[in-house]
Amino acid sequence: MKTYRIAAIPADGIGPEVIAAGLQAIETLAKRDGGFTLDVTQFDWGSDRYKRTGALMPEDGTEQLKKFDAIFFGAVGAPDVPDHVTLWGLRLPICQGFDQYANVRPTRILPGISSPLAGVGPGDLDWVIVRENSEGEYSGHGGRAHKGLPEEVGTEVAIFTRVGVTRIMRYAFKLAQSRPRKFLTVVTKSNAQRFGMVMWDEIAAEVSREFPDVRWDKMLVDAMTVRMVRDPKSLDTIVATNLHADILSDLAGALAGSLGVAPTANIDPERRYPSMFEPIHGSAFDITGKGIANPVATFWTAAQMLEHLGENAAADRLMRAVEKVCEDGTMTPDVGGTANTQQVTDAVCDAIRGSNI
Ligand SMILES: NC(=O)c1ccc[n+]([C@@H]2O[C@H](COP(=O)([O-])OP(=O)(O)OC[C@H]3O[C@@H](n4cnc5c(N)ncnc54)[C@H](O)[C@@H]3O)[C@@H](O)[C@H]2O)c1
């Protein structure tokens, strides 16, 4: 029997609510499966810790996480702590420290959930967005001079390296190759940004030659938003920079019904370090403590985690259970339902226990 060591970092806002739901679902799956168990360690890292001690996680935080097979993460961000402090104090040090350079964000319309796009239903929107997750616009390079003075300047430098771009293109082409349509869209902004983005395009063309069976096209990021809304069926696998994919995947989540159903996996494809699995959404201050956070994004990222661990049958069973529960109409208010987080979670656990495949 395999045992997976999972580091759970629920952190802030609705993070603890959805991570509790996710853990309940994967514990139920482990029991149903019988082939693996989970050894979960909880970490109290986040904004409360920051307010108490001045740091969101301990100095040796990433060192402590190294021994785990995967990290299950909620959300970070508090109304009374600046967002750049929380993001750079917890989530980004883990993503960058563990070189989780491929951020994988599947989006599709689940049965029973309505897209805000008229006439678009399950099967019409089925995408995977691959976000470059280690450099680009979020590399952390920049600074401020003459702080507070009229002549103050601030720079935010986007860093693109040949190594970084090549590896994410290879990952995206390979993923596109594994999907039935074998089709990749490379998002760019090389009309306005003449250096990093032109190199991005050139490397995409170079890497494409390694994948002759994958069709691909190129879109400027602004036009891409229009295509996602007007012609969702024309897209399949998508690769974009750290910033572009960050924005496009929120749009993707909304087009698939709600941010509450959108998952993400921060992957170290070389498996040198643990990968991290989280819902796309943030701490959602407006619904924290109300018990109505949609746990579906967290279930979906838990399925990505199980797949990464090699438990494909359990991952499929979890997604089938989620789809059944959505189809039956047990949903939270963000997707038009009246159920609360616990009711959706219990329904998914029942569906897992009742599944006969
Ligand atoms: N990965 C992360 O940890 C992460 C990601 C995004 C934002 N944040 C942080 O979260 C805080 C709030 O940010 P925001 O309001 O821009 O984004 P958000 O994702 O927290 O919320 C945006 C909207 O979506 C709704 N929503 C989000 N998740 C939902 C769910 N599971 N169920 C139902 N509704 C849901 C919220 O109620 C809100 O109306 C900020 O501090 C921000 O920095 C963290």
TrEMBL record:
Pfam family, one: Iso_dh
Pathway(s) served: Carbohydrate acid metabolism; tartrate degradation; 2-hydroxy-3-oxosuccinate from L-tartrate: step 1/1; Carbohydrate acid metabolism; tartrate degradation; D-glycerate from L-tartrate: step 1/1; Carbohydrate acid metabolism; tartrate degradation; 2-hydroxy-3-oxosuccinate from meso-tartrate: step 1/1
Annotated keywords: Lyase, Manganese, Metal-binding, NAD, Oxidoreductase
InterPro entries cross-referenced by the UniProt entry: ICDH/IPMDH, IsoCit/isopropylmalate_DH_CS, IsoPropMal-DH-like_dom, TTC_DH
GO molecular function: tartrate dehydrogenase activity
E.C. designation(s): 1.1.1.83, 1.1.1.93, 4.1.1.73
SMART domains registered for this protein in UniProt: Iso_dh
Localization terms from the record: Cytoplasm
Cofactor: K(+); Mn(2+); Mg(2+)
Annotated signal sequence range: none
Role: Has multiple catalytic activities. Apart from catalyzing the oxidation of (+)-tartrate to oxaloglycolate, also converts meso-tartrate to D-glycerate and catalyzes the oxidative decarboxylation of D-malate to pyruvate.
Name assigned to this protein: D-malate dehydrogenase [decarboxylating]
UniProt source species: Hoeflea alexandrii
